[in-house]
Specification:
Shape: globular
Number of domains: 1
Distance between the termini: 24 Å
Structural class: mainly alpha
Largest sheet: none
Number of helices: 10
Helix content: over 70%
Length: 252
C-alpha cells in the first residue's frame, strides 16, 4: 500500500497526467460530437459514438510511457531503487497506478462520448441493450488499462521518452496499418497483431453499428471477443515481464 501511495503521489504531482487525461477525453468526446453532429440519418449508433477511442488510446499510451521514462530522464528512478531495493515491486506499483488511471480514462472517455452523442441526437438508439453494446463502451476501460501496461513496458525497456513515444506511435499508426499490404502473408500476420485483435473484443462482428463504416475498421481476427482480450492481455503482461527482468538486471 505504501508503494502504491508513493507512486500515486509521484504521478499526480506532475502535469503530464492531467494534460494527458484532458486531451484524451477531449479527443474521444470531440470525435463523438463531430461524428454525431455531421452524420446522416441512420448512421448514429453505439459503435459510431466510439469512433475516436483509438486516437485517445494513443494519448494514454504516451502518458503511460512518460510516467516511467521521465524518471529515467531526471534520474529520480535511482532514488526510487535506492529507497526500494526490490525493483520489481517498485515498478509493479507504478504499473498498477498508471493502468488504474488509464482504466478510469477509458471508462470516462467511452461513456462521455456516448453521452454527448445522446444529447446531440436524442432520437438515435444509443441504449446499451446487449453484451456487445456494453463491451463496445465499458470495454474501453480494460483495453486502455492493458495498453498502458504495454506502453509502460516499452518505456522501461527503452528508458528514453522520445524513443518510447516514437516506437508506440509508429507501431500503432503505421506498422499495423501497413502490414496487410505485404504480399501473400500480410493478411495472416495482421490477424494476430495486438491492436487488430483487441478491436475484436470491442467491436465484435460490428453488431453495435448501424453500418460497418460507423466506427474504426473491424478486426480481421478469428478469435472470439473474450479470447481476443485475453490474447492482448497476454502480450501486454508478457512485455511487462520482459521489461521487469531487464530492469532487474541492468544499472538504473
Amino acid at each position: 500500500m505504501t508503494l502504491l501511495a508513493v507512486e500515486r503521489i509521484k504521478l499526480f504531482t506532475t502535469r503530464s497526467p492531467w494534460w494527458g487525461t484532458l486531451i484524451a477525453l477531449a479527443i474521444a468526446i470531440g470525435f463523438a460530437a463531430l461524428t454525431t453532429a455531421t452524420a446522416d440519418e441512420g448512421f448514429v449508433s453505439v459503435g459510431s459514438t466510439q469512433f475516436g477511442q483509438f486516437f485517445a488510446l494513443t494519448v494514454v499510451m504516451v502518458l503511460a510511457a512518460l510516467a516511467i521514462t521521465t524518471e529515467y530522464r531526471f534520474g529520480t528512478i535511482r532514488t526510487t531503487f535506492q529507497a526500494i531495493p526490490n525493483r520489481v515491486s517498485a515498478l509493479l506499483a507504478k504499473t498498477t497506478v498508471v493502468s488504474s488511471l488509464a482504466l478510469a480514462i477509458g471508462v470516462l472517455a467511452a461513456f462521455g462520448a456516448l453521452g454527448v452523442s445522446a444529447l446531440i441526437a436524442p432520437e438515435a438508439d444509443l441504449a446499451l441493450t446487449s453484451a456487445a453494446d456494453w463491451r463496445q463502451v465499458a470495454g474501453n476501460g480494460l483495453v486502455y488499462a492493458l495498453a498502458a501496461v504495454l506502453a509502460l513496458a516499452v518505456g522501461i525497456l527503452l528508458r528514453h521518452s522520445a524513443a518510447a513515444i516514437a516506437v508506440l506511435l509508429i507501431y500503432t499508426a503505421v506498422i499495423e496499418s501497413l502490414t496487410p499490404i505485404i504480399p501473400e502473408i500480410g493478411s495472416t500476420i495482421h490477424e494476430w497483431m495486438p491492436f487488430n485483435v483487441v478491436e475484436k473484443f470491442l467491436s465484435g462482428d460490428g453488431s453495435t453499428r448501424a453500418v460497418a463504416e460507423a466506427g474504426p475498421p473491424l478486426s480481421t481476427s478469428t478469435l472470439s471477443p473474450w479470447l481476443a482480450l485475453a490474447y492482448f492481455a497476454a502480450i501486454a503482461f508478457g512485455m511487462l515481464a520482459l521489461a521487469l527482468a531487464v530492469a532487474h538486471r541492468r544499472d538504473a
